[in-house]
Amino acid sequence: MKVHADRDRCVGSALCVLTEPAVFDQDDGGLVVVLSDEESGRVRDAIDLCPSQALRLAAE
Ligand code: SF4
């Protein structure tokens, strides 16, 4: 599975970074950056916590 982040939807809340910093980071503007495709329970938690539904897991 691949971690997808829709930066047009991201509102820079940082919840994903706080939840799984090995996979998510923020750029200088505060928007999400995906660092790796590591799939963990914390990645799924981050997807659930994102207030703008900007994150998802997909086959490609
Ligand atoms: S939790 Fe969602 S809105 Fe917040 S920084 Fe991550 S992707 Fe953006």
TrEMBL record:
Residue ranges of every copy of the Divergent 4Fe-4S mono-cluster domain listed in the record: 1-58
Cofactor dependency: [3Fe-4S] cluster
Ribonucleoprotein keyword on record: no
GO MF annotation terms: 3 iron, 4 sulfur cluster binding; electron transfer activity; iron ion binding
Coiled-coil segments on the chain, per record: none
Keywords: 3Fe-4S, Electron transport, Iron, Iron-sulfur, Metal-binding, Transport
Gene3D superfamilies (UniProt xref): 3.30.70.20
Name of one Pfam family that matches: Fer4_19
Biological role: Ferredoxins are iron-sulfur proteins that transfer electrons in a wide variety of metabolic reactions.
Protein name: Ferredoxin
Species, as recorded: Amycolatopsis xylanica
